[in-house]
Amino acid sequence: PTKWEKNQLTYNIVNYTPDLPVEKTRRALVDAFKVWSGAAKLSFTEVRSRTADILIQFESRYHQDGYPFDGNGMILAHAFFPGDNKGGDTHFDDDERWTFNSTEGVDLFMVAAHEFGHALGLGHSTVPGSLMYPWYQGYQPNFKLPRDDVEGIQRLYG
Ligand SMILES: CC(C)C[C@H](C(=O)NO)C(=O)N[C@@H](CC(N)=O)C(=O)NCc1cccc(N)c1
Ligand SMILES: [Zn+2]
User: Fold this and answer.
1) pLDDT number for residue 90
2) 85-109: b or e for each residue (b if 16 or more CB lie within 10 Å)?
């Protein structure tokens, strides 16, 4: 499927990165979901069960999904397009140095916002500067969802 057939989605944080205090990781993820719920009819609720639509995990190298991570650098994270089972699941490469609101390391908020775009059904964009552009462009204070991404999510969820 290219999109979820519902607007109210649930997520479960399976584990946390040792790079950040739990509260900062939780805030980065909540803010990343807000990017999308602020641009389309979507809501995200945390649940304490693995039956959630979107499972969030920090993993390195082989992690039982056929798409092993590659150590520090290059691939930062990946997410599965909408659907049952692994659909929506989002994995972050824990060999990156995850930071939040910092010019150091890799900003968890920015990458999570990008990955959740995939988890909602958006592919990569060719528009430089868009959130769904394939390449991470660093931490952006006062991030605002670019028009190309707003149009993309509106096309799916209105
Ligand atoms: C083929 C994919 C598994 C690559 C992977 C990705 O796009 N995940 O969504 C990824 O980590 N891409 C890197 C670029 C690369 N090194 O291949 C990236 O920066 N993606 C995350 C990202 C984060 C925030 C903004 C943007 N534009 C991109
Ligand atoms: Zn991507």
Assistant:
1) 98
2) eebbbbbbbbbbebbbeeeeebbbb
Q: 88-142 pLDDT, tens per residue?
A: 999 999 999 999 999 999 999 999 999 999 999 999 999 999 999 999 999 999 9
Helix (H), strand (E) counts: the chain? 3, 7
Joined tokens for residue 47: 């649940």
- The ligand with the least distance to the CA atom of 129 is 1
The Cα–Cα gap between 4 and 154 comes to 13
**Catalytic residue status for 104:** no
Cβ neighbours, 10 Å, residue 4: 21
Binding-site residues, ligand 1, Cβ < 6 A: 74-79, 110-111, 114-115, 118, 131, 133-137
Q: Which atom of ligand 1 is nearest to the CA of 75?
A: 11
pLDDT at 1 over 80: no
